Amino acid sequence: MLTPDQAQERAADLVRRATAAGADAADAVFSAHGSTEVAVRLGKLEDVGRSEGEDLGLRVFVGQRSASVSTSDLSVAAMDALVERAVAMAREAPEDRWAGLAPQERLLHGAPPLLDLADSHACTPEDLRAAALRAEDAARGVEGVSNSEGAGAAVSESVWALATSHGFAGSYATTGFSVSASVIAGEGSAMQRDYAFHSARHRAHLDAPELIGQLAGERAVARLDPGVVRSGAMPVVFDPRVGASLIGHLSGAISGTSITRRTSFLLDALGTAVFAPGVTIRDDPHRPHGLRSRPFDGEGLPVSPMAIVEAGMLETWLLDSASARQLGLEPTGHAARGIAGAPGVSTSNLYMEAGKVPVATLIADIAEGVYITEMIGQGVNPVTGDYSRGAAGFAIRDGQLAGPIAGFTIAGNLLAMYRELTPANDLVFRQGVNVPTLRIDGMTIAGG
Known about the structure:
- There is one protein chain.
- The protein is an alpha+beta fold.
- The chain contains 9 helices and 19 strands.
- The strands form 4 sheets. The chain has a 6-stranded antiparallel beta sheet with strand order 3-2-1-4-5-6. It has a 5-stranded mixed barrel with strand order 7-14-15-16-19. A 5-stranded mixed beta sheet has the order 10-9-8-13-18, with helices on one face.
- α3 runs parallel beside α4 (209-222).
- The longest helix is centred in the N-terminal third of the chain and has 17 residues, at 4-20.
- It is globular.
- The termini are far apart.
């Protein structure tokens, strides 16, 4: 695989070709990636896969007209054809007065921050197979587990580079390691399944396969013999692995595209109290070896930790350069660039700060409620904030988790849900989006 410096030179060379061919401005991205995956089931090797690829993407501007093209053919002839085609397409494209490269004065200059995103330690297919087998053995060893859907382990490496015609060139490398297990508990029509998964930039930071497998087995067994819940309004508590979706809806609603198109339930909420005063949500692209850390954004702008919500107040939109121009604001360093097309926006390591109370205290005064561990369906209206999703989890009775429940729906409106949200103090960083256990009062439950 190419080094970051080599990848950066590939992108810069494509930009030089584009400006020489008549483009007024251009940017290019280069991506190289490779991954190895091993899957086992019932103690036997089931699959080994290896994938590799290199891709180049080019965006060119002729006046206020632009076009984007991409290729995985990196030969000199293919590059020449790519540039020629892109410039010809741009000349025929409609004008867009908001499109363009990021403001030159805002570009990242100097050395980017060192975020420790790549691990130099080798991981062989034999290592992956051994990790997957250990995870599955631990899961199958949990009393009550009756079958396995398999376990897997994977390792990946990637290099990403961006170059622009107005002075930016940058690149960085990342690695990833993961282990997962999925098992079944019970027999016949009473069977239940669940899983556990962990991923990390560095192999040394990955949970032991035995812990991952044991958790998968315990989760599956805990779901056996689910009951039903009555319909009505009651408190809902979200396990961290499903609660993260709630601030995923927030990031979508405050993206520049949603605001400029006026398709957001938070359209007029900037600078107002959206959450309760005890809620703060931050985005930290500089988190060392974070799963979504990055030294610069998809347009070459510097990135920095920032508060999205501070003490309940919505502090910012998430803006790339085009949406910022349209709104008369400054870009926020959240541009995300794929191989093809114009930049969009994306958060990095988004998280809700921990609250002040333990989970036991959070649920102690709930006489009747539900604890959600699985969400089903995507019944969320981004324009109105109306929210309705299928769910499974556990009943809460007299301040304690009771038996498993399934086949019910939770509903509300995100505006009201955010105002009623209370976080526990159990925040752990395990994913790209992280939250503690969350409680929302007054949601509508439709039982089976």
